[in-house]
Amino acid sequence: MAHATHHHIIPKALLLKVFVTLVVLTVITALTGQADLGPFNFLHVPLAVGIAVIKATLVVLFFMGLKYDRPINALSFIIGLLMVGVFLAFTLLDMLYRGDIGNLERQPIRGPQIEQMASPTTAH
Amino acid sequence: MAGASEAITRVHAAEEHGHHPPYLQHHFVSAEQQFDAAKLGMWIFLATEILLFSGMFVAYAVYRVWHPEVFQAASKLLDWRLGGLNTLVLLASSYTVALAVHYAQLGNQKRLLQNLWLTIALAGVFMVVKYFEYTEKFHHHIFPGGNYAYEGLQLPYVGQFFSIYFVMTGIHGLHVLVGMGVLTWVALKARRGVFSSEYYTPVEISALYWHLVDIIWIFLFPLLYLIH
Amino acid sequence: MATQTYAATATQPQAEINYLNHARGLKSWLLTLDHKRIGLLYLISIALFFVVGGILALLVRLELFEPGQTIMSAETYNHVFTLHGAIMIFLFLIPAAPAVLGNFALPIMIGARDVAFPRLNLASWYIFWLGAIMMLVGIVASGLDTGWTFYTPYSTMTGSGVTWVVLGVFILGFSSILTGLNFIVTIHKMRAPGMTWSRLPLFVWGLYATSIVQILATPVLGITLLLLALERILKVGIFDPALGGDPVLFQHFFWFYSHPAVYIMILPGFGIISELIGTFSRKGIFGYKFVALSSVAIAFLGFLVWGHHMFVSGQSATASTIFSLLTFLIGVPTGVKVLNWVASLYRGSIWLRSPLLYALMFLFVFPIGGFTGIALGTLGLDVPLHDTYFVVAHFHYVMVGGMFLSFLGGLHYWWPKMFGRLYNEKLAQLAALLIFVGFNVTFFPQFILGTQGMPRRYFDYVPEFTTLHQISTVGSWILSVGLLLVAGYLLHSLFKGQKAPANPWGAGTLEWTHTGRVPSPHNFDRIPVVTRGPYDYHLAEEIFGNGRGDGDSLAVQPSPSGQTQQPQSTT
Fold this sequence. Notes:
- Helices cover 61% and strands 0% of the residues of chain A.
- Chain A is mainly alpha-helical.
- Chain B is elongated.
- In chain B, 73% of the residues lie in helices and 0% in strands.
- By secondary structure, chain B is mainly α.
- Chain C is mostly helical.
- Chain C contains 17 helices and 2 strands.
- Chain C has one domain (4-13, 29-554): Cytochrome c oxidase-like, subunit I domain (Cytochrome C Oxidase, Chain A, Up-down Bundle).
- At the A-B interface, helix 1, helix 2, helix 3 and helix 4 of A face helix 2, helix 4 and helix 7 of B.
């Protein structure tokens, strides 16, 4: 029983392929990040985050071996991600719609330091 | 009239007395159970790490949505080439640590050790680049939040961007340092020949931790350095 | 000291070796890897902090006996109620059921020799103490007056020991996370053969759900408190409006943990109630599957409602509405649990012992807490009731009436297994009565005070509120007498109590049927094979000891030939 049976060995060639893909995706991210996309500039964030998601998925599936692993491990990871999604979504639900009651300012209170920065006549 | 509720079985009696590997802890029934437990434990721990960083990602999202032009201007003060270099360095370190696990599974002690040292070295490069980035910022009086004092960019809420930058990269850097320590400990064990194709659990789970450190940076790079 | 090895025979030797006496000396306790000993280490620790928190509570009530200054200044009062809350929540309520009862019972209940990571378990206890000491250092050095919720901007401005305390709580969080991690891996990977998910005792399901919340929520508390500390030290300005931060963002961060935290407190309690009702009604739990799955459902739904603490903070109406709706939703699985417990009692063979008394008290008190929670979750009602004594009464009903009563019930239930002693049942019933009366006299008037407008955390009040406050304070004295009585007879039983048999309650779960009077260090000589559910009382022979029915010896004997026996169906 000392001999382990469930240990999938990921081939070196596959690891190398994944690494090269990751490098290529990083280069694409960096270059498109600098480029001016004209009317498509609003795509910068989705593109950058989207590529990051693909890279992360590759790392998780192949470098971390989740593709060949027991489902419970994947479930733990995914549930963690879902909770982050909940945290983000519900907080933004407040932040984005601040002031929808009508008697509230959208921005939080601006303290003295911020006021100072906003009116550059006062030297720091 | 013994009931069926417990048919006493001699669980792995033969294994227990004759075949007991030194690395098998006594509360586990088999090496397989021990390995599976360690892996699940690490994946759960990685979920907690994701949630730890999530707070900062939420803060980032909130302040970026509220002050997009400030974030855009402040991001220009970061050197995206250094950030990109660090991304490649960490990706390479993920590759080498995955190779380390691969060689451990094959029982190749030499290559296991080499790749562990390579991973640690690449992590060191990351920290050196980080050091230069930080000192350059401090030189220009770019500090978090209320201590921000860079004359070249004075906007309301610019301090918040750098707070988020320093806290996120700072906590990430701390995790890199911890990872370096853990991997060093594993490498020293590997040098003593503790691991084999049957037992390499510490290599596996420290590699998992290291990959997460890489993944966090994969997101930090575009979000902090490439804002347009 | 007998030198025979315990593993050899199944009969009871005269001086049996168990987990309490097999190794002596302080080192054997402080360096133990035995989950049962670690459970006891936690028991002593949280009991200590409960006493401190309890004394602070008595001081709060004493100050409120009269309007104006009674025994302390307003500034001192701020410190006292803050510390009462922080100590009770972080050093008692969060760890109590999982780290004490969970640590002790969980591995045995699933047929394992220990938790998955025993060294991590011990480390959790030391981390608990490290965090506690850091908190205490901060408190002793500079006090804490922010309320246990640490709201900014006051918490970033005040001179009190906030930094030390929040860093201490940050460390405490790791203790909680590691315990939860340990339990999840244990339940997934170390169940005995035949212990399927649908044969798990409901306390285990409760701990499983609790652990899920612990590992998902606590890290966010960690980053929140870390940011608060950084805010104070480095002026990062994320939460402090003077620096451009948003104080409501702090509340989002804080409550993302702190609401699920209340489910960390109550879910093990629900599990305990299931065990108590199942055992003492001899019937098992009505709707086992639903009760089990509702625990997990509550664990996840608990993450979706945190904004109900923030209805009047300036949160957007959109968010408030959605949070309110989801808050109503979470009442449903909880309500069905309560109904299922009542249905479990119905037509059962009720054996009224003190553990069941606590369960019955729970069934009365907890729904009051729960319903008032739904009331507070209603947007229109919350506007006048927020930050009043109505809220104070609500959370004391669920936390003390819910969690603490179930903890006491569990403590009484497993006491004979933990120590091999029976406590005085008559005193226990008297104490339960005192606690029930004292608790309700303390906290029910607070609902009324709240609806009449008495704000929480106030050291002074208008004279019209005096009578109700005085009734509440007297209630706290009655409650204290009851609790002192509990401590008294429990401690007494350790030295002079009647020796308990292996299964004094006639329960059906493995820690009762498959261990001796007091468990051996490794729980089982041989890992059992499970072929029945935890509440299958119709299989009485197996539960009560191979037909002997004396309950004094081990319930299990290996048959002479070593062969498995065929089941004798007794339906």
